[in-house]
Amino acid sequence: MTPRYDVREFIGTPAIFASEAMRGLLAQVEKVARTNATVLITGESGSGKEVIARAIHHYSMRSTKSWVDVNCAALPENLLESELFGYEKGAFSGADSAKPGLFEIADRGTLLLDEIGDLDLRMQVKLLRVLDGASYYRVGGVRKVSTDVRLIAATNQDLKTAVEEGRFRADLYHRLCQIRLLVPPLRERVEDIVPLAEFYLAQQDSRLHFSGEAREKLASYPWPGNVRELRNVVIRAAVFASGAVINAADLPEEFSTQSFSQNLHTMAALPDLERRAIVKALEETRGRQQEAASRLGISKRTLQRRIKTYGLAAERTVTFAR
Questions:
Q1: Which residues fall within 8 angstroms of residue 117, CB to CB, at 6 or more apart?
Q2: Kind and range of the H or E run holding 182
Q3: Is 166 left (phi over 0), alpha (psi -120 to 50) or beta?
Q4: What is the CA radius of gyration of the chain?
Q5: CA-to-CA distance for 56 and 110, rounded, in angstroms?
Q6: pTM for the structure as a whole
Q7: What pLDDT digit, counting tens, does each position of 37-93 carry?
């Protein structure tokens, strides 16, 4: 049977494009890719920002060169500089040999800085200088390094608000926004949900398929965790499937009638949904933030920022040992 969707693969990452929204975004990507402009990709966590970044590299004139990606929120601030710009032997304790930075590794290729909103202000200054074409020193180095890198940045934050609050430099924001692409959340591209679910299910076991009722449940669910959540739900359903057909009853408890109606009701207030998910994750992990962040599919630093945003720091649910 011919698929009802478009399957693309970008440097090892398969992607599904069924909705007009995503097909339109891909058309924009193909145009943007032919330039050397810096691109800022925004969208909710798990919506597919990295897939779009890989597509830009795939369609660019740099596609045969290096693709390098780093999650800025996953690295401690004291290590991020040495990861990006490299270091020389003896630059600090444990630096037994020189190491090129990610900018050098990505020379003539593409570098994705994911979660760029988590960069501290000091690193933002250094990044801006490099983006403006300035050479830089490795940590502990005495020789300047020059690179030719296509930079793509991604974030689930509102950087305009971060600029207003003094957490992000306005000049860096405008430098990154030469081209801005917004990846819509999964709930706004309903046509993608079932094709994505069927694709992920076939990856697990090609003999399995969803019942009509299960497909309806999947298509109507709000998916606060976007594509990442969808994939996890499909994997779980495949693991616990008792036969060749996955029925609505085989889906997680969130898809039950009661839970489902509650989810639809909270769609009008996604921040409240996110807040509750964070509280639940922290309760279930006894406040262990790294474990809670992993369950939520976000970095620990992002979780800590959300805790502050929602005023959870003073609540008992987060007073367990960190």
A1: 155, 156, 157, 159, 162, 167, 168
A2: strand 179-182
A3: left
A4: 21
A5: 9
A6: 0.79
A7: 999 999 999 999 999 999 999 999 999 999 999 999 888 877 899 999 999 999 888
**Rounded to whole angstroms, how far apart are CA atoms 60 and 30?**
8
Does residue 299 contact residue 73 with C-beta atoms inside 8 Å? Answer: yes
Encode 104-118 in three state secondary structure.
HHCCCCEEEEECHHH
d(CA 246, CA 90): 58
Closest to 100 in 3D by CA, of 56, 57, 53, 143 = 143
**Rounded to 5 degrees, what are φ and ψ at 218?**
-60, -45
Which residues in 30-155 belong to E strands, given as ranges?
39-42, 67-71, 110-114, 136-137, 144-145, 150-155
Terminal alpha carbon distance of the chain: 51
Q: Return the biggest CA–CA distance within the chain.
A: 65
Q: Over the stretch 186-216, which tens digit does the pLDDT of each residue have?
A: 999 999 999 999 999 999 999 999 999 999 9
